[in-house]
Structure formats: C-alpha cells, structure tokens
Design goal:
With 135 residues, the chain is mostly helical. It folds into two domains: 26-74; 84-135. It is built from four helices and no strands. It has helices at residues 26-38, 41-51, 55-74, 84-134.
C-alpha cells in the first residue's frame, strides 16, 4: 500500500511484490470460496481486495472444486478392485511355502535313508566278519 508523507500526499513508490506466482493451499481456497459465496456483491469486492485476489481466481477455484466433486461422486463405491499382481504374489508365496515344506520332508527322507544305508552296511560288515570267524 502507498504510504503518505508529512504533507498528506500519497507516496508514489510501489511496494515490491513477491517474485513468481502465488500458491494457494486447498484449505485457503475452500475457506475463501465458502466466505465469498455467502457475501453480497459489495462485500465480495471487499474480500477480493483484502486478499489481493481476482474474480477469475474464484471462477477457477469453483471449477476445480466442482470437477473434484464430480470425480469423487463418479468413483465407484466400495473397496477398490484388487491388483491382479497382488493375487499372483499371494499365489506364488503359497507355492514357495508348499515347496519349502516338501524340501524339508525330502531332506528328512534323505537323512533317514543315509542312516539306514550306513546301518545296513554296518550289519553286513558285522555278519561277514562273524561268518569268517565261525568257519
């Protein structure tokens, strides 16, 4: 705003504005729209001047709000559809768990067979030794 000097005349110096476009949060836009829509024509102009806004911004913000509302209303109700990749991942994880269980069983069988083979070799060796001694 322009200030006045000692003689009551306005200072022509314009205060610098920020560089670049202004950014407005969604909360700010919603608050300004709600307030703007409750006011009469004169008060609307006062609000725009107070906030340093243009009426075209209000129009744009309304369109954004309405587009967002239409999109939200057009979205299907209920849970979103499951991603087919998630289903495949779950199936593969179950398959891996099943294979790991089978692998554990196979290792146990191999271990038992190994011990059985060693025992049979030992028995065969003992019986061969006993047969030689008895002859």
């Amino acid at each position: 705003m322009a200030s006045t000097n000692d003689h009551g005349t306005p200072d022509p110096q314009v205060e610098p504005r920020s560089t670049g476009p202004r950014r407005y949060s969604a909360e700010y836009k919603a608050r300004i729209l709600a307030e703007y829509e409750t006011l009469d024509r004169q008060s609307k102009g006062a609000l725009l001047r107070r906030e340093g806004l243009y009426s075209s911004l209000i129009t744009t913000w309304r369109q954004q709000r309405d587009r967002g509302a239409k999109t939200a209303l057009a979205a299907p109700a209920g849970r979103p559809k499951a991603d087919p990749r998630d289903k495949e991942i779950t199936r593969l994880q179950a398959h891996v768990a099943r294979l790991e269980t089978e692998l554990g069983k196979a290792r146990t069988v191999i271990e038992v067979q190994s011990k059985l083979s060693a025992l049979l070799d030992h028995l065969a060796t003992d019986s061969a030794t006993q047969n030689r001694e008895s002859k």
